[in-house]
Amino acid sequence: MFSYVFMVANLVQLCLVPLGGLLLDKGGLRVAKLVSICLMFAGTMMFGFTSGSTSNMLFAAMVLVAVSSNIGLVCNQQASSLFPKYRGLIVALISGSYDSCTVVTFIASRTFPRISFKVTFVVLACCAIVCGLFEALFLLTQYSSGMAKLAADQDVLEGDGLEEDVTEKTSVEKVEKEVMDEDRSGMGGESVDQKVQEVIVSRYPTLKSCFRSYPFLLGTLWFTFGQVRFSYFLAQISGLLEDSFPGDSSLVDKLLEDLTIFTICGIAMGVIVGAILDACRNAERRRLASLINNPGKQTSDDQIYSIYLRALAPPVTLMACCSLILSCILFVRGKQAVFYVAFFFFLVFRSLLFSTTATLVISSFPIQSFGLVYGVINLIGGAISTVQYGLLELNITTSHIICVVVSALTFIPPIILFVKAGQRKKKCYSQGEF
């Protein structure tokens, strides 16, 4: 039953993300966060008071918690705007922490076995209210654009606080010199980011222009393919283990518990994935710095944007590789070690899937459109991922073959990113801009 509860909740929360995104863009971060914690409180309390006779309440509880978690995740991801140079790391850490939160119930069940689930969920509900209120009132700004402005103001304050005895003019000159030195070193820092933001604003003056862009299409494609693979793996894992080890329920339970332990490592994997995202992004920023700062050469906005987007191509390619390996390795049955390898690649795949999608929307579209653009991508992915209902009715071998095909299709978006950036780079070479 829980497999269907998970599938329904996952589908509903994906379909409702656009409403959460609209709430975020129009109502603001604080309003969205307050709505999120109210839904979380209600859902968690329903979990705590569900019994055998009221098991259907699990559907409502799971939906409320799932929707609130997604709205909360979108709000928390705005924290990456405070650290633009480490945006990939922040997004991946926040995404990974949602996996690692399973450590709470895991430790509680092992350390305090006599405490009932009802008490555990009541405590979690109260903690959600307290932490959510603190974040909404003291950490988040009213709107998403305010987070970026806060980061800029903080940079100015840090620059002014370098030396107390220097004049304001000297402080400003020192900050400007540091930026120029960073540009010369190849990172391109502030000047590159400002130029890219100018390009983004000019390319997407309206919300409609965001939805009609090729980055939106590519992001939707890889998220949809990845969501099908992600959801189906979690929905089928119990049945797959029972099919691989018939009659050995103790081993099945042990492997399911080990999967929980693997997901606890999500925040650690987030550090690695975030480092990969930032490394790729910084590499492209260095290339853009040499391109933008080349005197006497005109560079089109299209060239800058295509090269900037290429930073996401290597992580998405790695995600597709993990998905393909995961799909292929599950053809092997009856081998316990195979499932540990599958758990590892699933962990990497999951972290890359959500981190790359969020990073694409945050960094490639206007910040004021983040909520709705991200929500529509989730809506499309959630709607198409309903094919997993049909996959559950097929035999395991056939469903695995379909998953291999889906994983192979995930390579299409990064290939397009590489090709488009390569075309722009070749054009730059022909113009002598590199």
From TrEMBL:
Keywords: Membrane, Transmembrane, Transmembrane helix
Transmembrane segments: 6-24, 31-51, 57-76, 88-109, 115-140, 216-239, 259-277, 307-332, 338-360, 372-392, 398-419
Keyword Transmembrane applies: yes
Family matches, as InterPro entries: MFS (IPR011701), MFS_trans_sf (IPR036259), SLC43A3 (IPR027197)
Organism: Calicophoron daubneyi (Rumen fluke)
Name this polypeptide is given: Solute carrier family 43 member 3
Listed GO MF terms: transmembrane transporter activity
Cross-referenced SUPFAM superfamilies: MFS general substrate transporter (SSF103473)
